[in-house]
Design brief:
heterodimer, A: alpha+beta, Heat Shock Protein 90, Helicase, Ruva Protein, domain 3, Ribosomal Protein S5, domain 2, 4 domains, 8-stranded mixed sheet, 12 helices, B: alpha/beta, Arc Repressor Mutant, subunit A, Dna Topoisomerase Vi A Subunit, Chain: A, domain 2, 2 domains, 3-stranded antiparallel sheet, 17 strands, 46% helix
Chain lengths: 470, 363
């Protein structure tokens, strides 16, 4: 699914994603075998890559530095692998990049050698020039137990992908549709070389292996983000590496020294955020209004910032009232690179910040129907664990999240104050219209007059006065 | 000459109240006619504005005034209630119907006017008394509690259906209830030369049975504890219009004392009203010194009694020598006695011995 979204982000086509989960043995409770089918209208996978892309772990198109949902081609294949381990059924893949052919494979993974085993291979004519990918495989699971999380995942995915149509047919035959509210998509991220702060020995070695540079001076400028001639020169002097040294001639000891110096040198420029693809305030608002249907929402995109050489952007949104349920606590939705994070909420940096805030300062309280959305996008999300379920408390990231929450909380406060004011005025007017006519009537009777005095003017003056004030 | 004045009193007052209420309405009407929010100004009833006046010999309101305006969102509801109450009072007075505080509270609902509870409607009635300057009895709103009168006093009714009819108040041995009809009646004649006011029902009945009204030429009034305003007004009129001296007999404790004092000098709650007091009335007993002199069976003063006595000692109404002396005496002996305590000397002792002695002493 994440791959499907990434594929369409690259293509700049509003994605249509179809997911079908069907029970194949149907005991009805506990762990069962299911057949999962995921289809998209994305870029498709070139025919020659299909077996490797889906039958070989760590084969991925994502070895470059730009913000994508997944990173190394682990997710999709691992899912197929999990299916194979639990059910021993082959996976089925069909894909086309919009050429005249659709390629269809039936394959399994040779686990020992990490190689695809192709069981069957067909080619179809692609009259409609369809592009996209369909993957189908079997797996064991317990849908009944996972159902709330699955639906929550889809809903939250729909919030941060308001331009996607997501359809899900569940094993009980229910159809869930999350329709797009816009066809506008965020600009795709640019590819950039790594920032000197963020590289490790392994990365340097990989770059050294492929580099065409003939000197370290050229090497530094070509393969690192925001390093020009002057800075490269300064750095190499600092690190004690001759500028004319051929990169291919660097021995492992020198490489380690290089990496250490990269981290120590303070002359590098901070990375820019052109490689990031935040959702943007408008799309985030669209997603919230479409899926959460609140009475009020405020979104705030923070300025790009960096931690350890990794650029990141924090987007924060607050939603109040409407269909937001009233819980004892503020509802927290966490996203990293547009993927919902569902587990281990209490360990997440956002949760701790949320808990430490004094909401009374914003005329709010946790008992109000409030949802808070935190979206962190980065070329490297600071996950605490390999499970990628919660974000660690990096001070730079924490500060941006805190300031973002403060900003939207202030806007919520303004909204609440204004609404309170308007309601107060409405109550005032109601009170005046209720009592003034009575005063007029009884005074008329007391005074022995026939016609009551004209109080319309007085009521109007109340109205005008209120309007001027609000 | 006395008779002339007597005849006019009740009716005059009625007319005056009606006019006051009508003027009240006209003023508001005029304000709205001119396109401004209606407002009223009336004396403030806050404690800082209640003073004891030695000249008038009662509590009065000072110079401070409060302004209530329908422009103010917090005022408009009580303001409307006040105007309705004025309207309702006018209706009552004009149609010569009477109502009770409780009844006013319910009547409001018929006009889609709501009071939170009776205490809210009561306080609005006090506002109206202050704003218009008449007591609620003047616009026919009476409290529930009733007290009674017995004695040779001929009255003439003015209430609808009884106009011109006369009655002698000695004609029924249980006494006549001091209700709206008696309050608005004209006093025609009396052979009595004094008024005796009694706190307790048992004593009142004893005095009637023992023919006190004849033996002592008096009109007997039973207050049933703290006297209702109608009764205070009734006593005031007997004193003013018929020129009768008033003697008050209460229990011998701080509470009895204060019943007498309110009849004489009024209460802070009624500082906005006049003609409810009888400054020349006398408190004739039971005094603390009577407890000693007559060796009455007595009870120990409670803590509350003692606290109250200390309050009374500082009260400006208690500055006269008799009151100061008796308050100190109560505190000194630390005992109190009820009127019924005289029964230890036999049923008629109080009438045969005590009463003449005290009337003489306080005359």
């Amino acid at each position: 699914m994440e791959n499907a979204l990434d594929a369409s982000d690259l293509m700049r086509i509003p994605p249509n994603i179809y997911i079908r989960l069907a029970s194949t043995d149907g005991t009805g409770s506990g762990a069962e075998t299911y057949r999962l089918r995921v289809g998209d209208n994305g870029s498709g996978v070139p025919a020659r890559h299909i077996p490797s892309a889906f039958g070989q772990v760590l084969f991925g198109s994502k070895y470059k530095l730009r913000q994508t949902r997944g990173t190394f081609g682990l997710g999709g294949t691992m899912a197929i692998l999990y299916g194979q381990i639990t059910t021993h059924e082959p996976a089925y893949v069909a894909s086309s990049t919009g050429t005249a052919r659709i390629y269809e494979y039936k394959l399994m993974i040779d686990i020992q050698n990490n190689r695809p085993i192709i069981l069957n291979h067909k080619t179809h004519v692609n009259k409609e020039r369809w592009h996209g990918t369909v993957v189908e495989f079997s797996l064991e699971g317990d849908y009944l137990r996972a159902m709330p999380k699955v639906l929550e995942y889809l809903k939250q995915t729909a919030v941060v992908n308001p331009y996607a149509n997501i359809t899900f047919a569940d094993p009980k035959g229910r159809l869930y549709r999350f329709s797009r509210a816009t066809t506008e998509m965020p600009p795709p991220p640019k590819e950039i070389p790594p920032h000197p702060f963020g590289v490790d020995v392994e990365t340097i070695q990989r770059i050294m292996y492929v580099t065409q540079s003939r000197s370290m001076l050229e090497f530094m400028q070509t393969h690192f983000h925001r390093v020009g001639g002057k800075i490269a020169q300064q750095f190499l002097d600092f690190a004690g590496i001759p500028v004319s040294k051929r990169p291919k001639k660097m021995d492992p000891k020198e490489i380690v020294k290089l990496v250490r110096s990269l981290k120590k040198f303070d002359g590098f420029l901070p990375p820019d955020a052109s490689c990031l693809s935040p959702l943007g305030e408008d799309l985030l608002r669209t997603g919230i209004l479409k899926e959460l249907k609140p009475e009020f929402t405020a979104v705030c995109q923070r300025k790009p910032s960096t931690y350890s050489g990794h650029p990141f952007i924090v987007e924060v949104a607050i939603a109040y009232g409407g269909e937001i349920p009233r819980k004892d606590d503020i509802i927290l939705y966490r996203f990293a690179n547009r993927i919902p994070l569902l587990y281990d909420e209490a360990s997440d940096v956002s949760y701790r910040i949320l808990k430490s805030m004094n909401w009374r300062r914003y005329k709010s309280s946790p008992s109000m129907p409030i949802a808070l959305l935190i979206h962190v996008c980065s070329t490297k999300i600071p996950y605490k664990t390999v499970g990628k379920e919660f974000i660690a408390g990096r001070p730079e990231v924490g500060r941006e999240i805190l300031n973002g929450i403060r900003e939207v909380a202030r806007r919520l406060q303004r909204f609440l104050s204004k609404r309170e004011h308007v309601e107060k005025q409405k109550r005032r007017l109601t009170t005046f219209s209720k009592y003034l006519p009575k005063i007029a009537k009884f005074s008329t009777d007391l005074a022995g007059k026939k016609q009551p005095p004209d109080i319309e003017k007085l009521l109007k003056s109340v109205k005008k006065f209120e309007e001027r004030k609000s | 000459m006395k008779k002339e004045k007597v005849e006019s009193s009740a009716m005059e007052r009625k007319k005056e109240v009606l006019t006051n209420l009508e003027n009240f309405g006209s003023r508001l009407y005029g304000q709205m006619e001119k396109g401004s929010f209606p407002w009223i100004e009336m004396p403030s009833r806050s404690t800082e504005n209640i003073f004891y006046s030695p000249e008038v010999r009662q509590y009065i309101l000072g110079e401070k005034t409060v302004r209530r305006t329908a422009r103010n969102i917090r005022h408009i509801r009580p303001f409307t209630q006040l105007v309705w109450t004025a309207y309702f009072a006018h209706e009552l007075t004009q149609k010569r119907k009477t109502s009770t505080l409780r009844d006013v509270y319910y009547s409001a609902q018929a006009y889609d006017m709501s009071f939170k509870d009776q205490s809210e409607s009561n306080s609005i009635i006090v506002d109206l008394e202050t704003a218009v300057g008449s007591s609620r009895e003047d616009f026919n709103v009476f409290p529930e509690e009733r007290s009674a009168v017995f004695g040779d006093l001929t009255i003439e009714y003015t209430v609808p259906g009884y106009e011109g009819r006369q009655l002698n108040l000695a004609s029924h041995p249980d006494g006549m209830m001091i209700g709206p009809a008696l309050t608005y009646s004209e006093f025609v004649k009396t052979s009595a030369d004094k008024v005796i006011v009694i706190e307790k029902g048992a004593m009142f009945t004893r005095f009637v049975e023992e023919g006190v009204y004849k033996k002592f030429n008096s009109i007997l009034i039973y207050t049933a504890g703290q006297a209702p305003r109608a009764t205070r007004y009734f006593i005031h009129r007997l004193n003013k219009e018929m020129d009768l001296p008033v003697f008050i007999f209460t229990d011998g404790d701080p509470w009895g004392m204060h019943i007498a004092m309110v009849l004489i000098s009024g209460s802070a709650n009624a500082a906005h009203l006049r003609e409810l007091t009888t400054p020349d009335a006398k408190w004739s007993g039971v005094w603390a010194s009577d407890i000693v002199d007559y060796k009455l069976p007595s009870d120990k003063l409670t803590e509350v009694d003692i606290k109250r006595l200390h309050e009374l000692r500082r009260d400006p109404r208690y500055k006269d020598e008799l009151w100061q002396r008796e308050v100190k005496k109560f505190l000194k002996i630390g005992r109190k006695a009820e009127q019924e305590a005289f029964s230890r000397y036999g049923l008629t002792y109080i009438v045969d011995e005590y009463l003449p002695a005290k009337l003489k002493e306080t005359a």
